[in-house]
């Protein structure tokens, strides 16, 4: 998709560059942000509809005649309805409405929108426009002004992508209408706008820097609440996924039996597996609603909760065979209620570490506020994961949003408040020791100065210093070279004695001066490592000659 967008980027400029008076430097010219957003939105819709039309065509070939519409126009209309369902836009049908839509299908437009938004950020003029007058009080205020300007730029990019994307979605909703299904245009506009705005904002913020830099765009308290809410929600989702997989493994025989009853064939079986994978995220959210306590409903007379299970007639979807049987739940299953408290404890630690509070009373309140935001997110996820399937008994399917929000807010909030308070107390005690260490540093320096002054006047032992010159210790003596006798050594003492005797008395006839004197055997030459000093064994040996 990015290759198509790059062609859209370069082709109009190559044409404009040939016109007289038009700038020829393509690197310096940038499109306005709304124009790039329109191109990105149109390309995203085109690629997404092409993918869904291909899958729908395969299903139309494998399905009985007339199931997915009459002819290719019916196939395209069905693909358009799937595209609207991928954005969680409901439909009205005779006798009710369809609101239970697969959340896994949202991944396709989300990925396409994110890639298109990255291209839009590279293509458009996204120069950071700072205020005319930056605050001059402190670097912190200047950094705050820059952060606000970056947030404004991110919001502008999100709106530039979301506005045309929602307008095009309204046209698709009008095209997808038929006698049986009628999309809700208001839901289509709102869902497309929100998804495109989130994808465009995240992609533009990602262009500013890494994910950690994106979080730094937020104020410290807001960043702490965001991270704490994300951690608590992630723990609940992971626990829900583990519970779904455990239920499928324990009830795999019933799941296989339902699959054999449907007998969809090879192509139909692949499409059935794909449909269940798309509904997997819905099942995970139902599972963490079960963990939170309220559970979920499958029809007006069915409830699955830790306190008990009451099932009626459920839809013939193989993955629903993993539901427990009606009756009381084993006592050990009540242990899953401890998961939200564990999630709250972890979230409270994260909140306290990111934004510690100087007062002991504020940290638990911020932890409890993290529980409230986690409850709001859980309520929104519960509302998106459920919905009606027609009317009558299946008008209520999925968890209750307000019950899930209230349970998660209380369970996560209490645990997060306690853990945030304890963590903040430990951090404050640790920080309280640092000023004491800094205050003691001058005292230690003054003591060291007094000790040096006392050593100078003899009141204290001075520091050991190396003595001048070379001092040979026992260890070093073991490593010295063995002394040798040098044959060319000349005795200057002997020459001085000879001159004295020559002056005092007549010199007797001696050996021929031309004959070299034999070397002395009683003088040993020994060299150390400091420059080869000569060491005499007996310097007054000439007195005995």
Walkthrough of the structure:
- This protein has 545 residues and is mainly alpha-helical.
- It is 60% helix and 4% strand.
- It has helices spanning 2-16, 33-62, 71-86, 107-123, 139-175, 185-208, 211-216, 220-250, 252-262, 265-278, 280-292, 338-354, 362-385, 401-456, 474-477, 492-504, and strands at 91-93, 96-98, 182-183, 297-298, 303-305, 308-310, 389-390, 397-398.
- The strands form 3 sheets. It has a 4-stranded antiparallel sheet with strand order 3-1-2-7. A two-stranded antiparallel ribbon has the order 4-8.
- The radius of gyration is 43 Å and the shape is extended.
- The model is unreliable at 11-27, 458-489 and 525-530 (pLDDT under 50).
**Quick check: average pLDDT?**
75
What gap, in angstroms, lies between the N and C termini? Answer: 109 Å
Number of strands: 8
* Helix content percent band: 55-70%
Question: How large a portion of the residues is in β-strands, by DSSP E?
Answer: under 5%
Q: How would you sum up the major sheet?
A: 4 strands, antiparallel
Give the strand order of the largest sheet, numbering strands 1, 2, ... along the chain. 3-1-2-7
Shape: extended
Low-confidence stretches: 11-27, 458-489, 525-530
Order of SSEs, N→C? HHHEEHHEHHHHHHEEEHHEEHHH
Instruction: Enumerate how many helices there are, as a single number.
Output: 16
Name the structural class: mainly alpha
Summarize this structure briefly.
The model is unreliable at 11-27, 458-489 and 525-530 (pLDDT under 50).
Keywords:
mainly alpha, single chain, two-stranded antiparallel sheet, 545 residues
């Amino acid at each position: 998709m990015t290759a198509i967008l790059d062609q859209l980027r370069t082709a109009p400029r190559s044409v404009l560059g040939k016109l007289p008076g038009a700038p020829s430097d393509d690197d310096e010219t940038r499109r306005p942000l709304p124009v790039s957003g329109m191109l990105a939105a149109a390309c995203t819709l085109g690629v997404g509809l092409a993918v869904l039309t291909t899958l729908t065509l395969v299903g139309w070939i494998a399905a009985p005649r007339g199931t997915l519409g009459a002819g290719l126009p019916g196939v395209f209309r069905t693909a358009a309805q799937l595209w609207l369902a991928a954005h969680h836009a409901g439909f009205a049908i005779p006798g009710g409405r369809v609101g239970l839509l697969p959340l896994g299908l949202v991944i396709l437009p989300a990925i396409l929108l994110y890639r298109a938004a990255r291209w839009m950020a590279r293509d458009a003029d996204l120069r950071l426009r700072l205020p005319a007058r930056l605050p001059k009080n402190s670097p912190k205020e200047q950094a705050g002004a820059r952060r606000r300007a970056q947030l404004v730029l991110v919001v502008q990019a999100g709106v530039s992508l979301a506005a045309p994307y929602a307008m095009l979605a309204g046209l698709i909703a009008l095209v997808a209408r038929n006698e049986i299904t009628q999309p809700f245009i208001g839901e289509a506009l709102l869902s497309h706008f929100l998804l495109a705005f989130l994808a465009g904002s995240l992609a533009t913020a990602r262009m500013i820097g890494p994910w950690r830099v994106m979080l730094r765009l937020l104020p410290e308290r807001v960043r702490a609440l965001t991270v704490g809410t994300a951690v608590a929600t992630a723990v609940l989702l992971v626990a829900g996924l583990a519970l779904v997989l455990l239920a499928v493994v324990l009830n795999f025989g019933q799941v296989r039996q339902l699959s054999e009853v449907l007998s969809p064939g090879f192509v139909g079986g692949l499409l059935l597996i794909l449909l269940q994978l798309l509904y997997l995220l819905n099942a995970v959210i139902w599972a963490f609603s079960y963990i939170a306590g309220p559970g979920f409903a499958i029809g007006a007379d069915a409830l699955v909760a830790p306190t008990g299970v009451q099932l009626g007639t459920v839809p013939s979807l193989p993955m629903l065979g993993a539901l427990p049987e009606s009756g009381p739940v084993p006592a050990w299953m009540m242990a899953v209620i401890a998961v939200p408290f564990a999630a709250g404890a972890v979230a409270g630690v994260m909140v306290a570490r990111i934004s510690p509070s100087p007062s002991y009373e504020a940290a638990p309140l911020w932890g409890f506020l993290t529980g409230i935001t986690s409850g709001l997110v859980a309520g929104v996820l519960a509302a998106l994961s459920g919905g009606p399937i027609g009317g009558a008994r299946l008008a209520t399917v999925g968890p209750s949003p307000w019950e899930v929000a209230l349970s998660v807010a209380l369970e996560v909030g209490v645990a997060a408040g306690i853990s945030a308070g304890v963590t903040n107390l430990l951090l404050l005690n640790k920080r309280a020791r640092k000023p004491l260490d800094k205050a003691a540093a001058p005292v230690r320096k003054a003591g060291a100065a007094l000790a040096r002054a006392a050593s100078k006047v003899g009141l204290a032992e001075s520091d050991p210093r190396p003595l001048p010159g070379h001092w040979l210790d026992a260890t070093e003596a073991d490593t010295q070279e063995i002394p040798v006798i040098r044959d060319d050594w000349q005795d200057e003492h002997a020459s001085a004695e000879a001159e004295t005797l020559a002056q005092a008395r007549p010199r007797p006839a001696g050996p021929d001066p031309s004959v070299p004197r034999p070397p002395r055997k009683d003088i040993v030459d020994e060299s150390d490592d400091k420059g080869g000093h000569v060491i005499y064994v007996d310097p007054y040996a000439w007195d005995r000659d």
